[in-house]
Amino acid sequence: MTFSFFRSLILVLVFSLNWLNVSAITDSNTVYVFDIKDEISDPVWHNIQNALEEADQVNADYFIIDMNTYGGLVLIADSIRTAILRSDIPVYILINNNAASAGALISIACDKIYMMPGSTIGAATVVTETGEAAIDKYQSYMRSKMRATAEETGRNPEIAEAMVDQDIAIEGVIEEGKLLTFTVSEALENGFCDKEVCSLTELLADNNLQDAKIVRYVPTTIDRIISLLINPAVSGILIMIMLGGIYFELQSPGIGFPIAAAAIAATLFFAPLYLEGMAENWEIIVFAIGVLLIALEVFVVPGTGITGILGVSFVIIGLTLSMVQNVNFDFSMVAFDGLLMSFSVVLLSIITMAILTLIMLPKMLSSGKLQALVLTSSQEIEQGYVGIDNSIKQLVGQKGIAFSDLRPAGKVLINENHFDATSLGSYINKNESIEVTGTEGPQLLVRKI
User: Is 17 inside any structural domain?
Assistant: First the structure.
């Protein structure tokens, strides 16, 4: 009896230990980590959408952003901010050195803000490509976003707004005329940092997540390709190839290679933007209409200029608007810096293509296989090549009559043959005597006798 009792007790203990071990494994947390170490731009928005979706699929308990950025596009930052606020998974951020401008907006949207020693957060004024402050319309938009985000996450909205507007003064925090940027201690004091930590490991320990399963976002090959293609620098190169191919095809129709290169570049340019919801159908159509108008200017109505100007304008508009994230015809959410950057990429690509065409093309065509595309031989008169009938030169010095009035051009009759002629002096009336003094192309030059 005693043996059976102890045996039963041991079995119960073993079962209990196994159950506790399984429960511990089952109850372990999953933490999803996403890095933002570049400028806030379209590739970052593309990747964070995928990361949030993947975090949901792996049933992540926490989503942590490891950030070091000087900012970027306001519209992209606003899209990321909105995605964070709507996330069912708690989102924490670790500021690893910088969270400036657009980075500050994203940080304030997170549930908790952690900062590493020496880090800063703030300076969220909207600036142009030249580094100058944008007009007040865009500053007002950023101020409202910073305020609304701070209100949503329980932080001081006036402080958040002061990171954008240097005219806001807050006693004990910032004087008027200065743009607000917090150090770690200042952010801790004013509620814009939950704790200073030295690493991600310390952040995890602060939330009892030291034993959590860590899943890091790794872009797929397709993600990397899309991120590469929508990079402004790569977009600029594709625009150059696209427009260059169209130009050379219009100059020498029927070659095939230029238009094929242009078609491939156009596909690589528009397809990723379309998949990312940036390029709308009508923007691609505007570009296509522009190309058609340029072709009409070259082949159908040359010299008018109006068709060509409209075509170039449509091409520039289509390319520029395809790179900004508008909704149909609504551009109210498009920030000035994003629109200016897109236009700058298009304009710089056109200028660069024009320079390369004028300077490098002759050198390229003068050597190698491309030389076969250029006519390098000449047809000299001495070799028997003539463009007109040289026999009329034998008529110089001969006399005849005006077969028609020469005012100054007309017909003359010499040795019972008719010739085109031009009077060098006064008008010559029909049947008046003339003398051939020279030739000009296929015409005789005559004077009245």
Answer: no
